[in-house]
Amino acid sequence: MPDGDLSYAGQPPPGSYSGGGYQPGTQQPMSIYPGGQQPLAQGTIDPKIQQWFTTVDSDHSGVISAKELQAALVNGQGKHFSDTACRLMIGMFDEDQTGTINLLEFQLLFNYINQWLGTFKSYDQDGSGHIEEKELSQALQQMGYRFSPDFVTFLIKKSDHENHVKISVDQFIVICVQIQQFTEAFRTRDKELKGVITIDFEDFLKVALNASV
Fold first, then answer.
1. 164-173 b/e with 16+ CB inside 10 Å = b?
2. For residues 85 and 173, is the Cβ–Cβ distance under 8 A?
3. What confidence score (pLDDT) does residue 118 get?
4. How far is residue 13 CA from its own chain's centroid?
5. What is the rounded CA–CA span in Å between residue 46 and residue 48?
6. Does pTM top 0.85 for this prediction?
7. Most buried one in 1, 174, 180, 207, CB count within 10 A?
8. How far is CA 162 from the centre of its chain?
9. What number is the average pLDDT over the span 84-90?
10. What value does the mean pLDDT take over residues 159-179?
11. How far is the C-alpha of 24 from the C-alpha of 26, rounded, in Å?
């Protein structure tokens, strides 16, 4: 990437579910393509993304690891993205489970990240590189989630271990992706679309472990 940073771009992601954090039988899960648009024809690579891939692939192996991705991404506070965020993002598109992504997978990841960046930037009004509880709540509402103030406070405290008041863009991405993963797991088990499920202990552990990094 030209400046070692993934700049804000793309459109805010379409909503997932609305009402009480999850409302059965409503919208489809978030598209991984900016603005809900379809990707380039299969096998077609954007030349700019090809250039960024080459830059990020520091060992010239033809694939990108979480460490290489972390070295290339800097948040608005001048810090590299967290190891957790980078491993989570790599894992989302690592189809062969090698811990790395190839060029095609990188293009999907790049487009996906930029959706979250677009949403984050729209609430980072002062360009400080972080958002606070009120802004996080608004961003989640834009994505279709209606969480209680107590739950949003919990999300902030879980992410901001020092001050418990604000989150950076990489922390925001981790929160949003994990919420989406849990929502998908809930939706697949909500067969009758009631917004309530019964889950046994082992199934619960599978859901939790699949959403962890």
1. eebbbbbbbb
2. yes
3. 85
4. 10
5. 5
6. no
7. 174
8. 22
9. 91
10. 84
11. 6
pLDDT band, very low/low/confident/very high, at 150 (cuts 50, 70, 90): very high
Q: DSSP string of the chain?
A: -TTSS----S-PPPP---STT--TTSPPPPPSSGGG---SSTT---HHHHHHHHHH-TT-SSSEEHHHHHHH-B-TTS-BPPHHHHHHHHHHH-TT-SSEE-HHHHHHHHHHHHHHHHHHHHH-TT--SEEEHHHHHHHHHHTT----HHHHHHHHHHH-TTTSSEEEHHHHHHHHHHHHHHHHHHHHH-TT-SS-----HHHHHHHHHHT--
pLDDT given at position 200: 92
Residue 113 φ then ψ, to 5°? -60, -40
Q: Which residues pair with 132 in a beta bridge?
A: 166
- pLDDT at 101 exceeding the cut of 90: yes
- Domain boundaries 47-211, CATH class: mainly alpha
Question: Which residue in this structure is represented by tokens 């990240």?
Answer: 113
Which amino acid would we find at residue 47? P
Q: From CA 196, how far away is CA 85, in angstroms rounded? A: 29
